[in-house]
Design goal:
single chain; 124 residues; 11 strands
């Protein structure tokens, strides 16, 4: 079992950057494939990025390709999401999630553990 805690959200102007962090308060993240999802008001939760157990294999949703970078540091038990060139449409609550096995990266039902989320707001 693993408990996830996100941090790093906040308010930023369009074109700016934020770095989100996901840490395990309990458990070891190296045993899990880690993903980031986001949910905007009135919308369904959507896939953002995923990274395999040891990296560097990663996948990104089309809207964030070239702007977001997911990485992990298993020694520090953390996963990062570097977000550059932010747009107002990136505004959402961002969640990190963990899964043991490969499958459909975009399907949030296949993830076993979730953090509480961190708010990202991008102003125009």
């Amino acid at each position: 079992q693993v408990q996830l805690v996100e941090s790093g959200g906040g308010l930023v102007q369009a074109g700016g950057s934020l770095r989100l962090s996901c840490a395990a308060s309990e458990g070891t993240l190296s045993s899990y494939i880690m993903g980031w999802f986001r949910q905007a008001p009135g919308k369904e939760r959507e896939f953002v990025a995923v990274i395999h157990w040891s990296g560097p294999t990663t996948y990104y949703a089309d809207p964030v390709k070239g702007r977001f970078t997911i990485s992990r540091d298993n020694a520090k038990n953390t996963v990062l999401l570097q977000m550059n060139s932010l747009k107002p449409e990136d505004t959402a609550v961002y969640y990190c999630a963990a899964r043991r096995w490969a499958g459909s990266w975009q399907n949030d039902q296949e993830y076993d553990y979730w953090g509480q989320g961190t708010q990202v707001t991008v102003s125009s």
